[in-house]
Write a structure and sequence with these properties.
Elements (H helix, E strand, L loop, with lengths): L1 E2 L2 H5 L7 E3 L5 E5 L11 E3 L5 E4 L12 E5 L19 E5 L3 E2 L13 E3 L4 E4 L13 E3 L4 E4 L13 E3 L4 E4 L13 E3 L4 E4 L13 E3 L4 E5 L12 E3 L4 E3 L12 E3 L6 E3 L10 E3 L4 E5 L12 E3 L4 E4 L13 E3 L4 E2 L15 E3 L6 E3 L14 E3 L4 E4 L3 H4 L19 E3 L4 E3 L2 E5 L2 E5 L8 E3 L4 E4 L13 E3 L4 E4 L13 E3 L4 E2 L5 H4 L6
Parallel strand pairs: 1-3, 2-4, 3-5, 4-6, 6-7, 7-9, 8-10, 9-11, 10-12, 11-13, 12-14, 13-15, 14-16, 15-17, 16-18, 17-19, 18-20, 19-21, 21-23, 22-24, 23-25, 24-26, 25-27, 26-28, 27-29, 29-31, 30-32, 31-37, 32-38, 37-39, 38-40, 39-41, 40-42
Antiparallel strand pairs: 33-34, 35-36
Protein name: Disease resistance R13L4/SHOC-2-like LRR domain-containing protein
Membrane topology: Single-pass type I membrane protein
Subcellular location: Cell membrane
Length: 515
């Protein structure tokens, strides 16, 4: 970690045009005289956590065009004097500023990028932002801004990205946003916006990403959403929508997430061939799951958890060779175990819980299958027979102990702007939880509340990465295999309500994880 020497920079004051000290482990106080260097146009100082810099309170004369300050101490408030930097084109400030956004920012008429995300800014979005007519990118996400979205934002006709995520904005989405015909990303999620989506937004034909999740929006989704020609990512999670039968019109759509709404009716049979993620969790869809998954289907995540679907699980899912997550839990599907899913090489999460599946769960293939499976939930069905030893002995992904350390990694699908995090409902220690993100090291087997019989196979003891194992409420007999003591990563083990006999193995007898 290096201290800042103010005199070093003074020697460069007349000639310096660009200064980039990002992530340089600087500490101490950075001289604010840097802002008065006569030729400095580009200043980058982000990622110096122990560095302090005070922005001048007045008389800025710098010709700065690009200013990036983030992850450092820049003072508590963003001063009105920021409006003196009339040459600024890029302004990026992520410094935990408090208070309101100064109206003087509207004086920065040359700005093309304004990013004030992840501060503690409060108050309303100033109407003076409407003066920034050259702006192409505006992000004020992750603050505490309140009040309505100013209709005057519709004056920013050059905008391609508008991000107001995770604030306390309220009121309706202004119809004036229809003037932003260059927009490719409109992200207003995690606010308190209400009412219906304005029909005028049909003008936004350049949209590739639309995120209105976690608001209070209602009404029937306007049909034009399903005809936007370039739309790839549609997130409408946790609202109060009803949906028309027009999914198939979105021929470029890669992600469709309508989870946690009040959607009713049937899922259309003709889904966009471009879909990678279809998440309709926690709605009221009924009828059969669409049966026409075509050859070359690109689905990676199909989540229909918590609806009222019935009928059979469509065999055409075998055409979705890239499928990683299949969650149809909490429906009314009546079928036998889908052995044909053995052919899906990338399947990692299989959730069939709380349906009407029946019959035995035994492998029909000689070759290994389900090699990458890490989460298996067959609980609350009518399965019978022995536990599926042939499958269990091939659960290679559960045999990797995954040493702790390093940054956590999550199951996700990369997108052009960010990534889509997979979610999952799990039963853990008797309670249901929705994991908003799934760690790649998470693995569990939940087979409770069926009619499995016979002994617990020793091979389960090889699944060294297991975090949870629930075999309760079955008809299992015999002894608890000592090999379960090898499951050193186990956090929860439930073998209750069976017909097991004998002693609890020494390795488990003193454990608090056993039920």
């Amino acid at each position: 970690m290096t201290s800042v020497n103010p005199h070093f920079f003074m020697n460069l004051s007349s000639s310096l045009t660009t200064l980039d000290l990002s992530e340089s482990a600087l500490r101490g106080n950075f001289p604010k005289s840097i802002f008065r260097f006569p030729n400095l146009k580009n200043f980058y100082l982000s990622g110096n956590w122990n560095l302090t810099i005070d922005l001048p309170s007045s008389n800025w004369s710098s010709p700065l065009q690009r200013l990036y300050l983030g992850d450092m101490d820049c003072g508590r408030r963003l001063r009105e004097s920021i409006g003196d930097l009339k040459s600024l084109q890029y302004l990026f400030l992520h410094c935990n500023f408090e208070g309101s956004i100064p109206a003087s920012i509207g004086n920065l008429s040359q700005l093309t990028l304004l990013a004030l995300y992840s501060n503690n800014l409060s108050g309303q979005i100033p109407s003076s932002l409407a003066n920034l007519t050259q702006l192409t990118y505006l992000e004020i996400s992750n603050n505490q801004l309140s009040g309505p979205i100013p209709a005057s934002i519709g004056n920013l006709r050059q905008l391609t990205g508008l991000y107001l995520i995770s604030n306390n904005l309220s009121g309706q989405i202004p119809s004036s946003l229809a003037n932003l015909t260059q927009l490719s990303s409109l992200c207003l999620s995690s606010n308190n916006l209400s009412g219906q989506i304005p029909s005028s937004l049909a003008n936004l034909t350049q949209l590739t990403s639309l995120d209105l999740s976690y608001n209070l929006l209602n009404g029937t989704l306007p049909p034009w959403i399903f005809t936007l020609p370039l739309l790839e990512y549609l997130y409408l999670i946790h609202n109060q929508f009803q949906v028309p039968d027009m999914f198939s019109a979105l021929q470029n759509l890669a992600i469709l997430d309508l989870s946690h709404n009040n959607l009713t009716g049937k899922i259309p049979n003709c889904l966009p061939k471009s879909l990678s993620v279809l998440n309709l969790q926690a709605n009221y869809f009924d009828g059969n799951i669409p049966f026409g998954f075509p050859e070359g289907c690109g689905l990676r995540n199909l989540n229909l958890h918590g609806n009222q679907m019935d009928g059979l699980l469509p065999r055409s899912l075998v055409n979705c060779s890239m499928l990683e997550v299949l969650d149809i839990g909490n429906n009314n599907i009546s079928d036998t175990f889908p052995h044909w899913l053995e052919s899906l090489p990338d399947l990692q999460v299989l959730v069939l819980r709380s349906n009407k599946f029946h019959g035995s769960v035994q492998s029909t293939k000689e070759s290994p299958s389900f090699l990458r499976l890490r989460v298996l939930d067959l609980s609350n069905n009518y399965f019978v027979g022995a536990l599926p030893v042939r499958y269990i002995e091939n659960f290679n992904a559960m045999m990797d102990p995954h040493k702790d350390g390093g940054s956590p990694e999550y199951m996700m699908m990369p997108t052009a702007t960010n990534s889509y995090q997979y979610s999952l409902v799990v039963t853990w220690k008797g309670f249901d939880y929705e994991l908003q993100r799934i760690l790649t090291v998470f693995s569990s087997i939940h087979l409770s509340n069926n009619m499995f019989e016979g002994e617990i196979p020793d091979v389960i003891g090889k699944l060294s990465s297991l975090k949870g194992l629930n075999l309760s409420h079955n008809n299992l007999t015999g002894h608890i295999p000592p090999s379960l003591g090898n499951l050193t990563n186990l956090e929860w083990l439930d073998l209750s309500s069976n017909e097991l006999t004998g002693k609890i193995p020494d390795a488990l007898s003193s454990s608090e994880i056993v039920k």
